[in-house]
Amino acid sequence: MPEKRDPCGVCYNGGAVKAKIHPKWYPEARVHCACGNTFIAGSTVPEIAVEICSSCHPLFTGQQKFVDTAGRVDKFNQRVASARKKQEEAAARSAQKKQKIAESAL
Questions:
Q1: Are 52 and 77 part of one and the same domain?
Q2: By the 8 A CB rule, do 33 and 51 touch?
Q3: How far apart are CA 94 and CA 29, in angstroms?
């Protein structure tokens, strides 16, 4: 009878895999959400802090919720306001320029 071989023995070279290079695996890593929910998941770090989880995400809850992380909406509003101010200043400068040209033509 022929000898049984390992099915991966032909294509897998176990000696080529490096030892001790993989990070430590935490099968019971705790995940803390900003809403107060905590749950356990596998990870390479023991504790994870997240901003949104399945218990507070609008896709899973069905309730529309405004989520503003890091004040992005405020930053956008500030940029829009500064752009409007610059446009108004440019319009005022061009009006003054046109007025000076009109006065010099007389």
A1: no
A2: yes
A3: 62
